[in-house]
Amino acid sequence: MRVSSQLTFCSPLEILRRTVVEQDEQKLVTRLFSLDECNVESAQTLFFDGIISAEIISLKENNAEVNEVMANYQYVDVSQTIPTQIIAVDKPLLLDFGTHSTEKINQRLKQLVPALSVFSIFEIIAACTYYPGLALGKVGALASGRNTQLILWEGVDLVNKQIKESTRIGEII
Description:
By secondary structure, this protein is of the alpha/beta class. The chain has three helices and nine strands. The protein is 17% helix and 28% strand.
């Protein structure tokens, strides 16, 4: 399977434009390549509107020791209650939805928009995908060799790099 969108979030320091993510049947990322480097349109590629990222990871769902994580991250558990405000601090934000269910995450994501307004969409994606992976001792970045469910972030304000009430996530199958 090959998919592409305007942006691909690999890590907080690597956000790629017009990139194709190639994945095999076991969800292993086999290759990432730029459409700009191709002489012709990439055949068999599905194009989406939004941002592609790796899967959303929950520390609670993985039975992680949250107290250890709090030393390095601004851990916010949004699995039960939705905070009205999240203040940016000097640690990376880590959001824990307590699930990987896109339906449940979308319900909470809509309610979180006011609290997340001080964060860029890339900080929010990193908080759900990249930093939880690192906190669990796994690969954080979307890269060749990583086995992951690809997620599409739709309804994002790409100009201002902000989340909106219409922002939704979905699994790319």
